[in-house]
Amino acid sequence: MKYRYLRFPEGKAKAVTFSYDDGHICDIRFSDLLTGYGLKGTFNFNSYKMRDNGITVEDACEHILAKGHEIAVHGAFHRAEGRMRPAEAIKDVLECRLELENTFGGIIRGMAYPDSGIRKISNCTSYEAIKSYLSELDIAYARTLNQDNNDFELPLDWHAWVPTAHHGNPKLFEWIDEFVNFDVINFEGSLAHRFPRLFYVWGHSFEFDRANNWDRAEEMCKKLSGHDDIWYATNIEIYDYVTAYNSLVYSADGRRIYNPTATKIWFDIDRTPYVIAPGETLEIK
């Protein structure tokens, strides 16, 4: 049996994304930094705070949406799903999604868990219940945290999406170097290690102000940017692309592949690259 691996757009084997929380005014500076380096990220907003002292709608439109970044749900009142009864948590997520969509237009399907998220469970709820109602609310993915690692793997569970590292992790630059320097396509070891890699950074833009270390943000972006073998994408773009890849339809012997999606999809089979167009049936010889 041959190994078949997803490849990102243009056949790239690696991807980078960012996820920043709370809709703070510092998001303007950080989103501009990402844009300047050709990077893309997701900004997770608390809808209630937008009516208070957070980033303005005008600034979010100009510096985030107009530059190709994503806006996602972070709870109307920034309350942890694992600490609330399902009815309360559903209200918090739904109100946030409704207000963000009404404010910015479009369809908002992504989320980052507020506060302790799903790390602490109480008050008669469970992760299974949380995942169930988020799916019913059409939340496609939800980012969790505090499991930093350098596995660089795509999530097995989109509602418990573990990022690579917080930007303050002391191993951040070591892991960036490891990620950037690993050549997935030309790897000479076991074919089993040629799976796609993802580097996912999360944090709060105001932390750079508090620590007076915007130079760290600059260095992080500089190291991750400008690589021909990396796809730079928002969280929802990664979700949508991987979902499209997983929607491919195969014949029983795996030799014919049909793409029922509207997305052009790249993959390789034992070092042979393929691309399949929307609606195409591909014959593998």
Reconstruct the topology from this structure.
Elements: E1 4-7, E2 14-21, H1 27-36, E3 41-45, H2 57-63, E4 70-73, H3 86-104, H4 127-136, E5 165-166, H5 172-181, E6 197-203, H6 206-211, H7 214-224, E7 230-232, H8 235-245, E8 249-250, E9 256-258, E10 265-269, E11 272-276, E12 281-283
Parallel strand pairs: 2-3, 2-6, 2-7, 3-4, 5-6
Antiparallel strand pairs: 1-10, 8-9, 9-12, 10-11
Helix pairs in contact: 3-4
Task: Explain what the structure shows.
The longest helix is centred in the middle third of the chain and has 19 residues, at 86-104. α3 (86-104) packs parallel to α4. The protein has helices at residues 27-36, 57-63, 86-104, 127-136, 172-181, 206-211, 214-224, 235-245; strands at residues 4-7, 14-21, 41-45, 70-73, 165-166, 197-203, 230-232, 249-250, 256-258, 265-269, 272-276, 281-283. Strands 2, 3, 4, 5, 6 and 7 form a six-stranded parallel sheet that branches. A three-stranded antiparallel sheet has the order 1-10-11. A three-stranded antiparallel sheet has the order 8-9-12, with no helix packed on it. With 285 residues, it is of the alpha/beta class. It has eight helices and twelve strands.
In short:
It is globular and about 60 Å long. The protein has helices at about 25-35, 55-65, 85-105, 125-135, 170-180, 205-210, 215-225, 235-245; strands at about 5, 15-20, 40-45, 70-75, 165, 195-205, 230, 250, 255-260, 265-270, 270-275, 280-285.
Based on secondary structure, the structural category is alpha/beta
General form = globular
Total number of β-strand segments? Answer: 12
N- to C-terminal distance: 14 Å
Low-confidence parts: none
Percent of sequence in beta strands: 15-25%
What pattern of helices and strands is seen along the backbone?
EEHEHEHHEHEHHEHEEEEE
Major sheet description: 6 strands, parallel
Rounded average pLDDT? 95
**Oligomer class:** single chain
Total of helices: 8
Helicity range: 25-40%
Compute the gyration radius: what is it? 19 Å
